Amino acid sequence: MSNVIRSGRRAVLAAALGTPALVHAQGSGFPTRPVSLIVPFPPGGTTDISMRALAEAASRHLPHPVIIENKPGAANTLGAAQVARARPDGYLLTQFPASAIRVQMQQRLSYDPLRDFTPILCVTGYPFVVAAKAGRFPNGWAGFVEEARRNPGKLSYGSTGANGTPHVHLADLLQREKLELTHIPFRGDADGSQAMLGGHIELMAGSTSIGGLVDGGQAEFLNVWTAQRLRRWPNAPTLHDLGYNKTVTTPFGIVGPARLDPAVTRTLHDAFAAAMRDPQFMTVLDRYDMVSEYRDSAAYAAFLKEMVQEEADLIRRLNLTAA
């Protein structure tokens, strides 16, 4: 998918003049005050940093700023729960992670992931990886599969949390190979990586924040889940390289309450779409090995429908329950 985002003649003209285009909802003057954007993760993490860069860039295309509100907890569903109840005026939005969909399928929550929101646009996704201690599996992923098959139930793997994307999709790979391993959830990549280096687990499924250990020769990536190999670690195979028809980046976007005025939706879309071209935002994505997953409002709505069905099928097949 092209990363070029067309935002209209005003944006093109503004770029030619060297100034950002300010976008307003026709007839309403929206926004007349700051827009709040909930990030359901703690400050300082990859999601928070990337969303702050996006909000800062979008603020240059609106007459009032976009303000980040961090609301972690409840498996990253607090933003969705609050926006689902908010007035549909465009002043309260949330980053919409896959966990806001997955958790809703495993336990009864206060919102429906499709009916209760207006998709604004899809932004980016995460580069997930499976790592092992350097030299632990000389033949890479194939060597791991062979050893796990010889020792059912004796090996273990870690992830960045029960029922998170790394856990769910590594469990899917293990089921495809008919392997039995013990799952151990950790608070984050750092804790899990130390357990891996200490020999307490064989694999760690998480993000590219493990990459520092790879660069230092302490760990290696057995596979990466992006569509293409990662620029910083070109020797790490993708799942497609290993014969799996599978790509996992769990793209996330921005949503507002249901029944949002189409003109307001367009104003917000245009501001954030322009922000996605901002060099500072693109630098942040590159720093964390993230890529643009741009989809406009209609395409993002269609994508969410597909994602809900895929997640439901996966949870049912893996027989996952709420953590």
Automatic annotation (TrEMBL):
Keywords: Signal. Residues 1-25 form the signal peptide. The keyword Signal applies. Belongs to the UPF0065 (bug) family. This is Tripartite tricarboxylate transporter substrate binding protein. It comes from Siccirubricoccus deserti.
